[in-house]
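Q: Hi! First time asking for a complex rather than a single chain. Here are the components, and I think there are three in total. Is that enough to go on?
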Amino acid sequence: MQLKKIKGQISLAACALLQVTSPTAQAEDNQWDVDSAVLFYSEGDGRVSAFEPAIYAGRDLEDGDRIDLRVVVDALTGASPNGAHASSVAQTFTTPSGNSSYTTKAGETPLDETFRDTRVSLGADWTMEMDRLSRLALGANFSKEYDYTSLGISASYAHDFNNRNTTLTTSLGFNSDSISPEGSIPSEFMPMVNKGFAQNRESDTETKTITDFLVGITQIVDRKTIVQLNYSFGITDGYQNDPFKIITVVDAAGLPATGAFDAFNTGDLPYVYEKRPDSRQRQNLYVKTVRHLEEDVINFSYRYYWDDWDINSHTFDLKYRYQMESSYLQPHIRYYMQSAAEFHTHNLALGTDVNQTTGKVQVDYASNDYRLAESETLTLGLKYGIPMGDNSELSMRAEIISQAVTDDNVPAGEEIPDLDAVILQVNYSFVW
Amino acid sequence: MRIICLLFAIGISGTGCSSMGVEPWERDLLAKKSMRLNADYLDNYYDEHIYFSKEATSGGQGVGGGGCGCN
Amino acid sequence: MTETRLKKEQDCWRGSFEVMASPCEILMEVDDQSLAENILKAVSAEAKRIEQKFSRYRDNNIIFKINNASGKTISVDDETTRLIDFSDNLYRMSEGLFDITSGVLRKAWKFDGSDNVPESERVKKILLTVGWNKVTWKDQQLKMKPGMEIDLGGVGKEYAVDRCIQIVRDMTAESVLVNFGGDLATTCPRRRNGFWSVGRLITGKEHSVALFQLRKGAIATSGDAHRYLIKDGIRYSHVLNPTTGWPVIGAPHTVSITAPTCIEAGMLSTLAMLQGEKAEQFLKLQEVDYWID
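A: Yes, that's all I need. Here is the structure of the assembled complex.
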């Protein structure tokens, strides 16, 4: 027999035998897999709360391709710390617009009450089967909120080796973000000016780019265990300040140094806008394993992160899926700890960090964003899922997040309250 | 009886894998929906978003996913 | 009635029974137990029906009638006609390599791992009763020389898988996987992300299993690592070339192929084995997904 392509002829013969017109046409009855959810997030005490509906849909296309789409809306209200620290006296701050002010009572953490935003995020991935052992996925994402726009693309290539026992993945992602805060971009390290006066402002918009590279390997160790190991490297370039965050300037007694910026129309406001480096190099090692027990499933991941801002973090995440008759219960515990950024400071000292005469800040970078402080986060959660008929599943999730700044050097009087947040989520997945 | 057996099933998605020392038709263990590396897709999306806005560090699982003014 | 077993797995029903000397399994992504029971019943009944009708080990079916016709002309029914027509097509496509009359060669060849290679005279003699070109096949009438036999075992199991898939598709829109001793097919992709994981024993490596994902369509495997002869350092696979009467040399141990239907996959893997050393070359030409070892 000559070596020749006879697949087509065999296919026709098979059609005749099975009395069908086309054997391939039968299998193309693809449907959308849809997962929808709403999430309610609350930090309580008038701080941030969020309502976040999301929908994900994916379906198989011809020739082994697949498309996945995602829409998420994120409605936020509430207040977040503005960076100044609590004081034994009442403190007054100018709003970002420069037109009004707000006052924080003695002993309370100053919060910027004006925080309110709605974010819409769209994502799409298209996965193509390149040949029998490799796949290429192209992705795009876009998000828009009142003062922030993000546009990103990504590409990911996966290749199977070793009798398809091992999959090697390389991914590249690029994001271009811009921020246009209310009242424009505050001038770095310049004082907050009293309301009604010309504010220290720069351009309307600042930008940053985020480039990420990832290599990963996935392996099944044995019939019950899958392990994934990723290394990623990323560079963020451009404006990385939080434009709404300020730092308190204190005197030798540790009290807000009212009068430090007499030359700047500050009134008595002793605050400067923060300044962070405009470049950040991030690295991650991530390992995840999923293991099947008798009926239940354990899902564990660990991440080690480090960057050139001197921040490193450890994240442990454990989920245990307890399988019941048809429904399941899934407890979740997550523990996170991070070190502080090199330039994180609780305040700036007049005379050393800030020139007493000129009011110029004399350090390279500084921020009192609590998120750059040494901290830990503990999350405890529980999820319950139950099938609803042949095609759908309903699940509910409740989690409690407790975050605490663990910095031993918190100055007296500057109390950083723990953050306690609650997540409630309902999912409904179905085929359409 | 044939010794070669292709067999057991239940969908694992994403990646190919190996396994040793088991008879494939004995049990389906591996590769249920709950065994996927990206199980709970929307939960993960939410979590990444929340912790991105509350913590200084992020990433590790993949690239892209969209920026946010929340950090 | 075939003995069947039904078991609830975490996310599907697993039905099992034995037919055609093979363990058979169906995995059903349905929630309703009575639907699962009905599917299992229908599939096992169809598999049993096909076995009874086409097995060459029975003495009361059409195959027995044909093989014991002693030169007389036999009329066959529609289904048998389609199977014989299909085999006739394959015979011509493969230039004689696929031949349903080759079964009598088993009288000479016993693939038990020994060095028991038959005398070439014996093979030559048996070969006189082998050859689809010696058969008269027209208008559902089959006439063979006395001593000739046909065996539809080479397509029977794959045909049964595809038939059962057709039956199940009429019963449910959910994904069902039908697996008859390693030849398997799905009705449609699974609900979420679409895969059935399929394990493939890697021959030669003890207890090794490779897993891969079957989204849709079928997989069939040819070859058997435990059936061969070795003499003078030559490994004779159990795949016989009906034109020579001798085993194919250099054939892979096993070949697995995916295709839209189990029959296509099965025929391609059988023909690949018959190519011997050129099996992989042949498979590459077909542009199919395959595993070979």
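A: The CA atoms of residues 175 and 192 of chain C lie 10 Å apart. Let me know if you'd like any chain examined more closely.
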